[in-house]
Fold:
Amino acid sequence: MKKIIGIVVLSISFLGFSQGNTHTQSGGKFEGLAMTPPMGWNSWNTFATNIDEKLVKETADIMVSSGMAAAGYNYIVLDDGWMTKERDANGDLVPDPVKFPNGMKAVIDYVHGKGLKFGLYNCAGTQTCAGYPGTRGYEYQDARFYAKLGIDFLKYDWCNTKGITAPEAYTTMSNALKTAGRPIVFSLCEWGDNQPWEWGKPVGNLWRISGDIYPCFDCEFKHPENWSSWGFMKIVEMRKDIRKYSGPDHWNDFDMMEVGNEMNDTEDKSHFAMWCMMASPLVAGNDFRKMSKETLAILTNKELIAVDQDKLGIQGFKYSAEDGLEVWVKPLSDGNWAVTFLNRSDVAKKINFDWKKHIIKDADFGYEADFNKTVFKLKDLWKNKEIGNTKKNFVSDLVAHDVITLRLIP
Structure:
């Protein structure tokens, strides 16, 4: 979501209660709801607040008919703009009756009837980023409202939060959801400003690590309000040394995807590959009704999705970089590895990778691949075919901004 805030007052380590309060509140997130990175669709990247019942139903229909649901995409999340500008007389949030004339429950039931799950958005502050009612001061009331509606996912933003701390605000909402009793995936969206990877594991199932994404390879898009959106490679490398904090049920979230939005197919392919390598949630942000067959093929590449959804849940890392050619690696279950060759430059590159000259070591999780001791079969995950083994150099051409992703199988 868009970062429209004043100054944030931060007290980074405060997770407890005030002095003299001897009551210990049980809470924390619902455990086990996101043992692999969540997959689905979110409305913001393409539609902002221009959302309605028709869009949701058409998106749900296409998610099923296109094969995306079969590929693992199962959450439909409505972002900012689903409610009216004021709460009702009881203080409850009110779904916009113009956008949702049959009520939000009817929309949720429709999505559930398709075998899918449903999510909504709100904000820890007094207002959402687009100026709708925020949750500050209404955490337990809103949690009961969401539970009654039957939602499965809550994205919780960080706009208009002057005077509160992120650990406290997100812990309060997490406890409220737990108290309301319905298992709801809790997505922390405070842009990584308060290092949620250090305190978020007992609070949420995933946390954003950056400001908003922008549909470009490696740019910074500066907004007039003095904040920036980021190209996908900027986000990949924005935070250092946080991969050790990510894993099953507590994911580093690299933001919704821009696949199918303004970039070319080669860049979309690289974007998707890197999200899978980083074990990021895979949340599409394009208009399914206008989706090309190339975009659909990228988003439903089952071999790449298997890398993202691997049960080890380990985030990949950059192994090497030389003259614009980067090698990214990710340990997988059963002794497998994913290796992505990425052309970061604007000109074509030649790959000539001598496996025997490299020993890949994962310092955070203790995995190692020594190609002098173990021979691995190579499977090209974009071509879906085996292409030899690590006894011979891997040789290929790679155009600008493109990737080749291999699965190494011992």
